[in-house]
């Protein structure tokens, strides 16, 4: 089989890494890819939003399966286009990808189908939004309605901060058109977990549990990012929480999307807030989380290709997935000043030292400059390790991190610590 992966980040590097291990696969392409991906697949210089270009490439190379990594091409309708021309493709169609592309849509869907979530309202004007903030009180959560690369969520700790977030978003200064509508919701207390599942629109197969670390600094402080690290399994997802997540979140959502005439196929990601026995849904993503994808795929024992193909063929009723007993931890190494305006072009050193048994460095924001590897994004590398326990996986990941350096590099030093406290 010839497989095309669309995207250029750490998630796509993990997908390519896992797909390339399949005995079913003869050749893997990635568009546009990155230098790390280029060591195990052929990078193709086509942008993720160039749908005609991607289709033309798939036709020219007779691609057997296309796997979509990021949310943007899904929201633009790449799955609809490829299917129209008879190509097998893994991902949600445009009318289903709206579950991520519009937070207002996903909140309204949850309300209609009784998926537990925070109380909320949707606003397009500043005045009514401020009235709602005063009614609900602080802390409060302000979300840009549209796609904002994982950064369109402000957890406001003061009234001034909440008012500034709403004003910035609705004026178009923050997140552009993604912030032309805002969702404001009550702040939920508890511990976050990421719950992912494959679905063909009817059947649902959960992945192993995982936990992301969104805040930029240790102790979950500072602004939200696309994710500073992740680990799997997540002890906070107990068997009873898993059952609740499947029945009250995944089942109701998949059935609700089908009832709305928007059958959801692909991987569905639910961000959950867990507080004791209570499970509430923070958000949905229409793709693999990044960085959750990295530790999850390191723990996946089964060949991923038959799973992706079964989803593309709209029937996963016979699919089973095996997982390694080992734990996996991913530590994201970020560019100076990320998630603000960050530096690019710094030379990365030590990668050759970092790779070892049960440790892999996934490239997220890198480029080549005259043969030198340089930083080219906010989240630069995802150092991911397997270990018999979470503690051993943490130690192995940070030993890899300690070997790598560039000017201004920063990373959280507490990835996975919540698992140890349990």
UniProtKB/TrEMBL annotation:
<dbReference type="InterPro" id="IPR016185">
    <property type="entry name" value="PreATP-grasp_dom_sf"/>
</dbReference>
<dbReference type="GO" id="GO:0046872">
    <property type="term" value="F:metal ion binding"/>
</dbReference>
<dbReference type="GO" id="GO:0006189">
    <property type="term" value="P:'de novo' IMP biosynthetic process"/>
</dbReference>
<keyword id="KW-0436">Ligase</keyword>
<dbReference type="GO" id="GO:0004637">
    <property type="term" value="F:phosphoribosylamine-glycine ligase activity"/>
</dbReference>
<dbReference type="InterPro" id="IPR013815">
    <property type="entry name" value="ATP_grasp_subdomain_1"/>
</dbReference>
<keyword id="KW-0067">ATP-binding</keyword>
<dbReference type="GO" id="GO:0009113">
    <property type="term" value="P:purine nucleobase biosynthetic process"/>
</dbReference>
<protein>
    <recommendedName>
        <fullName>Phosphoribosylamine--glycine ligase</fullName>
        <ecNumber>6.3.4.13</ecNumber>
    </recommendedName>
</protein>
<keyword id="KW-0658">Purine biosynthesis</keyword>
<dbReference type="InterPro" id="IPR037123">
    <property type="entry name" value="PRibGlycinamide_synth_C_sf"/>
</dbReference>
<dbReference type="Pfam" id="PF02844">
    <property type="entry name" value="GARS_N"/>
</dbReference>
<dbReference type="InterPro" id="IPR020559">
    <property type="entry name" value="PRibGlycinamide_synth_CS"/>
</dbReference>
<keyword id="KW-0464">Manganese</keyword>
<dbReference type="InterPro" id="IPR020560">
    <property type="entry name" value="PRibGlycinamide_synth_C-dom"/>
</dbReference>
<dbReference type="InterPro" id="IPR011761">
    <property type="entry name" value="ATP-grasp"/>
</dbReference>
<keyword id="KW-0479">Metal-binding</keyword>
<dbReference type="GO" id="GO:0005524">
    <property type="term" value="F:ATP binding"/>
</dbReference>
<dbReference type="Pfam" id="PF01071">
    <property type="entry name" value="GARS_A"/>
</dbReference>
<dbReference type="InterPro" id="IPR020561">
    <property type="entry name" value="PRibGlycinamid_synth_ATP-grasp"/>
</dbReference>
<feature type="domain" description="ATP-grasp">
    <location>
        <begin position="107"/>
        <end position="313"/>
    </location>
</feature>
<comment type="pathway">
    <text>Purine metabolism; IMP biosynthesis via de novo pathway; N(1)-(5-phospho-D-ribosyl)glycinamide from 5-phospho-alpha-D-ribose 1-diphosphate: step 2/2.</text>
</comment>
<dbReference type="InterPro" id="IPR011054">
    <property type="entry name" value="Rudment_hybrid_motif"/>
</dbReference>
<dbReference type="InterPro" id="IPR000115">
    <property type="entry name" value="PRibGlycinamide_synth"/>
</dbReference>
<dbReference type="InterPro" id="IPR020562">
    <property type="entry name" value="PRibGlycinamide_synth_N"/>
</dbReference>
<comment type="similarity">
    <text>Belongs to the GARS family.</text>
</comment>
<dbReference type="Pfam" id="PF02843">
    <property type="entry name" value="GARS_C"/>
</dbReference>
<keyword id="KW-0547">Nucleotide-binding</keyword>
């Amino acid at each position: 089989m010839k497989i095309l992966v669309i995207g250029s980040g750490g998630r796509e590097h993990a997908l390519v890494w896992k797909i390339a291990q399949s005995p079913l696969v003869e050749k893997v392409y990635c568009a546009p890819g990155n230098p790390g991906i280029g060591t195990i697949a052929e990078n193709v210089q086509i942008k993720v939003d160039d749908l005609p270009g991607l289709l033309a490439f798939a036709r020219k190379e007779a691609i057997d399966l296309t796997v979509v990594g990021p949310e943007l091409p899904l929201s633009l309708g790449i799955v609809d286009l490829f299917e129209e021309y008879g190509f097998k493709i893994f991902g949600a169609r445009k009318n289903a990808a709206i579950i991520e592309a519009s937070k207002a849509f996903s909140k309204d869907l949850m309300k209609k189908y009784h998926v537990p979530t925070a109380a909320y309202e949707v606003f397009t004007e500043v005045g009514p939004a401020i009235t709602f903030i005063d009614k609900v009180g602080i802390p409060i959560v302000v979300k840009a309605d549209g796609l904002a690369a994982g950064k369109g969520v402000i957890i406001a700790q003061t009234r001034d901060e909440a008012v500034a977030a709403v004003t910035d978003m609705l004026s178009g200064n923050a997140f552009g058109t993604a912030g032309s509508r805002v969702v404001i919701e009550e702040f939920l207390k508890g511990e976050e977990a990421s719950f992912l599942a494959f679905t063909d629109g009817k059947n649902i197969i959960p992945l192993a549990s995982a936990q992301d670390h969104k805040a930029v600094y240790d102790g979950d402080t500072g602004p939200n990012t696309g994710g500073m690290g992740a680990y799997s399994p997540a002890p906070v997802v107990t068997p009873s929480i898993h059952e609740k997540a499947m029945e009250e979140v995944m089942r109701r959502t998949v059935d609700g999307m089908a009832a709305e005439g928007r059958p959801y196929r692909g991987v569905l990601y639910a961000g959950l807030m867990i507080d004791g026995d209570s499970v509430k849904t923070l958000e949905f993503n229409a793709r693999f989380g990044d960085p959750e994808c990295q530790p999850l795929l390191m723990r996946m024992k089964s060949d991923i290709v038959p799973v992706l193909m079964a989803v593309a063929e709209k029937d996963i009723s016979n699919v089973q997935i095996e997982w390694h007993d080992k734990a996996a931890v991913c530590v994201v190494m970020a560019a100076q000043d990320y998630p603000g305006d960050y530096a690019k072009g710094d030379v990365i050193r030590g990668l050759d030292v970092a790779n070892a048994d049960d440790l892999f460095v996934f490239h997220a924001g890198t480029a080549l400059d005259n043969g030198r590897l340089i930083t080219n994004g906010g989240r630069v590398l995802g150092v991911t390790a397997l270990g018999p326990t979470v503690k051993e996986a943490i130690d192995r990941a940070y030993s890899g991190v300690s070997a790598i350096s560039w000017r201004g590099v920063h990373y959280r030093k507490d990835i996975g610590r919540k698992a140890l406290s349990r």
